[in-house]
Amino acid sequence: MAYRTPAAPGGEPGKIIASSADLARILDRIAHQILEKTDGGRDTLLLGIPTRGVPLARRLAARMEAFEQFKMPVGGLDVTLYRDDLRLRGARAVGPTDLPAGGVDGRLVILVDDVLFSGRTIRAALDALADLGRPRAVQLAVLVDRGHRELPIRADYVGKNIPTALDESVRVRLTEIDGTDEIRITGKEEV
Amino acid sequence: MTQRTHLGVRHLLSAADLDRDAAKAVLDTATEMAAMAGREVKKLPTLRGRTVVNLFYEDSTRTRISFEAAAKRLSADVINFSAKGSSVSKGESLKDTALTLQAMGADAVVIRHSASGAPHRLAQWVDGAVINAGDGMHEHPTQALLDAYTMRSRHGRVEGLKVVIVGDVLHSRVARSNVHLLHTLGAHVTLVAPPTLLPVGVEAWPADVSYDLDAALPTADVVMMLRVQRERMGDSFFPSEREYARRYGLDAHRVRTLPDHGIVMHPGPMNRGMEIAPEVADSARSTIVEQVRNGVSVRMAVLYLMLGGMS
């Protein structure tokens, strides 16, 4: 594929698709789109999917609060115990789920994740959400949609569509977790 | 995330099977499981389609119910097999039962048996994960895990805690598993018991030994009282119950010599008035009810990590 560039000598493999400044602009746009589609964030809450969905959700909430001076509830939704690949991949570390006060009942829940790929994580998130209550509606915001869906799931807000080959890998890095902001794509043989 | 997500062993037979990372993985996972217990829908789909067999050759209330609740909350199918009253000799019946379980395709077998080592034998006959829920006077690893979890939730850590384990160490699988696990997690354990109730070779355990309860209490972060197991005592191990209670029982007077933050634990069932006074068992320092509640979360964590890591 076009993105499969050789590693620079001594540098990290792969190619940077979005820099820190690009990422900031993407999040600004998504924040505006959410405000527009939710009538200024009314009865809305953001739930990030660990690991990187959680800081993304917090950043989006902070931006919306700065744009429109209101309090956007934000939390995290761990989906580990709802995954369908336990037999294939084995147990994974279970992360915390924290819901903002008031819960999800009757509200518009926007799930936030870094990369949308097979759609299985989102399927698990929908099941997890159903055990927490009954939202009025559920929407999905992702930083990257890399295609290759295995389920009928699509995102309502997409930061960047990146066409990929199945054997490539898309890595989102965030300052809160990785010390830097970037989206990087690597071929399998380079990882 | 760097947290380990497997225990590094196929069966959980002894608390000594777990290294520090594995033990911490259980405690961390149990913390998240405990958070689920506060939700409206407590059930998780995680182990749907898996079969967990509770194979209990010995009486048990809390452990069996706890494992059953844990497996059901994770949506596993639970089969309770109570072997009480079986007239077949132990070795044969255990093997026959094992072959039956094997034929049924049990993914995990939780076994309690009066013979030390029975879970080890079972592990050779079945493909599923074997979890020791107490074997004779040997081990009870999930009890040690829930005790460590309880200490961590009360004190914020296990490492560096001074833990005093008091009473019938000789017959206690709880004490044996706790000594192993607490040592792994970096706590300092002191065993306090009359000389007749200490096992041969106790000096090789990673714990101090004392005969003087009053000397150990003022610096104890945790005091764990063991049940005097009269059903396992053919002979006289101490002159009288009154004398035992006077020297090794935890009464209201002795509890006052604990540091302010000191907690009192007991694996249950208790002999109230013997190793522990009723007012101590029911006091704010006592974690006895908490231990039972924590048991479900810890066993959910063990089942998840063991069955998840199997493929």
| CATH fold-level name of chain A | Rossmann fold
Task: Indicate how many domains the architecture of chain A comprises.
Answer: 1
CATH class of the largest domain in chain B: Alpha Beta
Oligomerization state: heterodimer
Number of strands of chain A: 8
- Helical content band of chain A: 25-40%
Q: For the CA atoms, what is the radius of gyration of chain B?
A: 19 Å
CA distance, first residue to last residue of chain A: 15 Å
Instruction: Tell me the radius of gyration of chain A.
Output: 17 Å
**What would the average pLDDT of chain A be, to the nearest integer?**
91
State the fourth-level CATH superfamily of the largest domain in chain B.
Aspartate/ornithine carbamoyltransferase
What fraction of the residues of chain B are assigned to beta strands by DSSP?
Answer: 5-15%
**Helix run count of chain A:** 5
Q: Which blocks of ≥5 consecutive residues of chain B have pLDDT under 50?
A: none
Tally of discrete structural domains of chain B: 2
